[in-house]
Design a protein that fits this description.
By secondary structure, the protein is mainly alpha-helical. The protein contains 10 helices and no strands.
C-alpha cells in the first residue's frame, strides 16, 4: 500500500561515516514508508511524532548521529564473520560470529524488535528502538557491514576513484577506502549525485530514488520478505548471509590486488551498481514488512516524552 511520506523523528547532526551514506539510508526509509500498513502508520506516527518536520528519512539516519554519545551502540551496525576469506569463502556462523557482550547487527535487530513490542517499555525506549530498526535493517543490506574482512573493507586502501589525486600520500585516492566506495561513491554515481550534499538535497535525491525503486518493484517479481518477528534471528540471519555472500560474489570478486590496482569508478562501478540498487530496494521492502508485522502485535502508544535518549535532539 502506498502512502504519503510521514513526518517522524528528530535527529542530531550527521556523523562523519555512515553505512550507505545518508542518501542510501534515507532512500530505505522513504521506500519502506510506501509499503507501511495503516496500523504501522498509526504506531510509528505515535512513537516518532515531533513538531520540527523531521521525517522517516531523518529517523533512518539517527543511529549514526549518536555513535559518539552512545559508543556502546557502534558494534550494532555490523557483524564480522570470523572465517571470512573473500573471494574464496564467505559465511556467517550464528551465534559464534556475534560477540555475546558487545552484540552485533543481528542481535541488535532482535533486541530492538522486542523493545518496540513491549508496551511496558518507556516511550523513549520504544522510540529509540524504532529508529535503530529503521537504520540497522539498512546496514544489514550493505555487504561490507556483514564481513570480517579487513574491518569491513575500511582497511582496503588507498582506493582510486575518478583518478583523484592523493590527499596524504599513497597512490590514487589518498584516504579513500573500499568501505566508503560502497557507502557513498557507488550510490552517488548511480544516482548522478556529487560526493556530498546538504540535508535538503539528500532528501530530494533519496525520495526520487525511492520513487524509482517503488515503480520498478511494481513491475517485477516480488522481493522475498520475512516477517517472523517471533522467530528470533531466523529472518535477520537469512538477510545477513545473503549480504555476506555478495562480498565474495561482487565486492571482492576480483580480489584485493585488482581492487587496489584499478580505478573503481570505471569497470568496477559498472559491474556493481546494480548490486547497490538491488540491496537498497530489498532493504526498504523488508524493513516495511518487519515494521508492519510489529504493528500487528503492538498497538499505538499515546504517551509522549520530551526528548530522545542519547541527546538525539529535542522534539
Amino acid at each position: 500500500m502506498r502512502i504519503n511520506t510521514l513526518a517522524l523523528a528528530a535527529v542530531a547532526a550527521p556523523a562523519a561515516v555512515m553505512a550507505w551514506g545518508d542518501v542510501g539510508h534515507r532512500t530505505v526509509g522513504y521506500l519502506a514508508a510506501k509499503y507501511l500498513s495503516p496500523g504501522a502508520i498509526e504506531l510509528y506516527g505515535s512513537l516518532l511524532a515531533n513538531d520540527q518536520g523531521f521525517d522517516i528519512s531523518d529517523a533512518a539516519t539517527w543511529a549514526d548521529t549518536i555513535k559518539q554519545k552512545m559508543p556502546w551502540s557502534s558494534p550494532y551496525h555490523y557483524i564480522n564473520p570470523v572465517f571470512d576469506d573473500p573471494p574464496n569463502n564467505c559465511n556467517v556462523t550464528w551465534p559464534s560470529d556475534c560477540p555475546e557482550k558487545k552484540g552485533c547487527v543481528v542481535s541488535a535487530i532482535v533486541n530492538y524488535t522486542s523493545i518496540v513490542l513491549d508496551r511496558s517499555s518507556s516511550h523513549i525506549d520504544r522510540k529509540n528502538a524504532t529508529m535503530f530498526l529503521l537504520h540497522l535493517i539498512g546496514d544489514l543490506h550493505q555487504p561490507l557491514h556483514v564481513t570480517g574482512y579487513k574491518t569491513g573493507g575500511n582497511d582496503v586502501e588507498p582506493i582510486c576513484w575518478n583518478h583523484e589525486p592523493p590527499e596524504t600520500g599513497g597512490s590514487c585516492g589518498g584516504r579513500l577506502n573500499l568501505h566508503s566506495v560502497w557507502d557513498t561513491r557507488i550510490p552517488h554515481k548511480l544516482r548522478g549525485l556529487p560526493t556530498s550534499l546538504d540535508n535538503p538535497a539528500e532528501k530530494v535525491a533519496a525520495a526520487t530514488w525511492a520513487e524509482d525503486l517503488f515503480a520498478r518493484q511494481q513491475r517485477t517479481t516480488a522481493i522475498s520478505e520475512c516477517d517472523r518477528i517471533d522467530a528470533g534471528a531466523e529472518c535477520i540471519l537469512g538477510w545477513a548471509r545473503e549480504s555476506n555472500a555478495l562480498v565474495c560474489d561482487a565486492v571482492l570478486a576480483r580480489g584485493e590486488d585488482w581492487i587496489l590496482s584499478n580505478d573503481l569508478s570505471d569497470e568496477y562501478f559498472e559491474e556493481n551498481k546494480h548490486v547497490v540498487d538491488d540491496q537498497i530496494g530489498k532493504a526498504g521492502v523488508r524493513l516495511a514488512a518487519w515494521l508492519n508485522a510489529i504493528a500487528v502485535v503492538a498497538p499505538p502508544d499515546d504517551s509522549k516524552e520530551p526528548e530522545m535518549v542519547g541527546g538525539g535532539g529535542d522534539l
